[in-house]
Amino acid sequence: MSKPEVYTSALKPFAHQLKALEKMDGKESFALLMQMRCGKTKTLLDDYGRMELDGRVKNLCVIAPGGVYKTWKKAAEEHLSADLKSRVKIGMWESGANATKTREFKAFMDEREAPRILLINVEALSSVKAAREAVEAFLKADKAVLAIDESTIIKNPSSQRTKFINSKLAGLATYRRILSGLPTPKNPLDIYGQMEFLDWKILGHRSYYSFRARYAVMWQQQFGGRSVPIVKGFRDLDNLAEKIDPHSFRVLLSDCYDLPPKTYELREVTLTAEQKRAYSDMKKFATTQLATGEHVTATVVVAQIIRLHQILCGHTQDEEGVFHEIPENRTSELLEILDDYDGKAIIWCSYDFDVQKVAKALQKTYGEGSTARFWGGNRSTREAEEARFLNDPECRFMVATAAAGGRGRTWTVASLTIYFSNTQDLEHRSQSEERTQGVGKTQAGAYIDLVVPGTVDEKIIFALRNKIDLAAAVTKDGYKEWLI
User: 249 and 354 share a domain?
Assistant: First the structure.
């Protein structure tokens, strides 16, 4: 890479990003194994930008989880050069799009002169025929980079989406890239599907079973009269790492001292059918009730907003005070984020019910000793749980309410903070963000908000991030902007 400056990128790369770009330059297949906050997205866009500038490719297709893929549009606007931004067309797949968006997407797919970026969620590729056909047509149209963001989404070689991506799409791309902070979240065998996408020659195995036989120690266990192969352990992992190394760049947060002090990210959550129905009914009721009142106070408006917010989190109470749980996708989105992270994290919840629900999900996924809690319901044990979080490497997660743990706690062992949900209290947000900060700490914090677009969820987060007091923002007729 003779001219590092010729990415024409809007923002100058950090030193570790330059190293990644230098190592991947010219390679048809490459893995950006960069831990969260180290700049995988920018590095990929810089790589695409320089190859488009050189005429090596024209288009870019990014496949990512549903909660992530839309964020690539903003990233492209932030990181692409002014020249490329003026020429590139960005298309986004949306299931169930209305007539206007459908026409816009068709126009994007018909475009042949300008460079294009197609963004699509991996879930659509599991079964949606039109989505599959769109990606195939896009990759066949011109030379393209095909990138899999959070590539553990194709770690299961037997899943329908992995089979389709690896057998149908990979071969259509001129260049292939995967992005992951933690490519083997469960065990080393998770790497096979990701490397198969890049090039089966990297590992030297065309079959997952031959790969497993090479690196896993197996034994047979009897279940209901059937003999089932079980992984007992692993071997020759140094050899596996040697095979991957020439085709990858690995960097940890602890290796990076040129990162921005704080980063903020939104992860979109889709509503279940039950939530959509409940939210619509509650919004209609709340708007009608407030509009007919002679005197609307901020307290009343905030109370209605909280009721809507609770539905977004997966629970509500009826007029008799009976509690109802509602199916939700928020918890699964949280687990998907953590699947790509191997450090300690704090998960903030607005409601006691969510603390219990999230902790239970984490313990089921990562084991009983993986999670500590700090909330009003465990006053007698929370100090001991805090000590375990601070001192036990196996205890990776602190699930807490800002009301209980948002002040006076020093939880600097964590560098990732996830807001499963936010309270309406500005002080709660400000104080809770500081729990991971400390004197002498070299790793700055990353903050991720789970959000349902187009709802009060989004407006609450906007207000808190911009230091706006919610109660003040909804006075008089201002509440209509929040509910309608």
Answer: no
- Nearest in space to 268 (alpha carbons), one of 3, 65, 84, 450: 450
| Sheet with 59-64: strands ordered across | 89-92, 116-121, 59-64, 144-149, 175-179, 29-34, 248-251
The dihedral sign for the CA sequence 207, 213, 216, 221: positive
One-letter amino acid at 91 equals G
Instruction: Give dist(CA 449, CA 311) in Å, integer.
Output: 17
CA 201, 207, 210, 216 torsion: positive or negative? positive
Segments forming the whole domain that contains residue 250: 15-259
Q: What is the pLDDT of residue 2?
A: 41
| Distance separating alpha carbons of residues 51 and 58, to the nearest angstrom | 8
Letter for the amino acid at 336? E
Report the DSSP beta bridge partners of residue 262.
445
Burial of 128 (C-beta count, 10 Å sphere; 0-12/13-18/19+)? middle
- pLDDT higher than threshold 90 for residue 421: yes
Determine the Cα–Cα distance for residues 357 and 228; give it in Å rounded to an integer.
Answer: 33
Q: What confidence category does residue 483 fall into, taking pLDDT thresholds of 50, 70 and 90? A: low
Q: How far apart are CA 333 and CA 354, in angstroms?
A: 14
> Does residue 87 lie within any of the structural domains?
yes
Beta bridge partners of 116: 89
Q: CA–CA separation, 375 vs 347, rounded Å?
A: 12
pLDDT of residue 409: 84
CA angle 475, 406, 279 (to 5 degrees): 45
For residue 424, what is the DSSP state? S
Angle at 69 between CA 126 and CA 445, to 5 degrees: 130
- pTM, to two decimals: 0.74
CATH of the domain at 125: 3.40.50.10810
The answer on pLDDT for 288 being more than 70 is: no
Compare 448 and 305 and report the one with higher pLDDT.
Answer: 448
CA distances from 335 to 162, 185, 190, 368, 419 (A): 19, 11, 17, 15, 13
- Report the CATH number that the domain containing residue 403 is assigned in CATH: 3.40.50.300
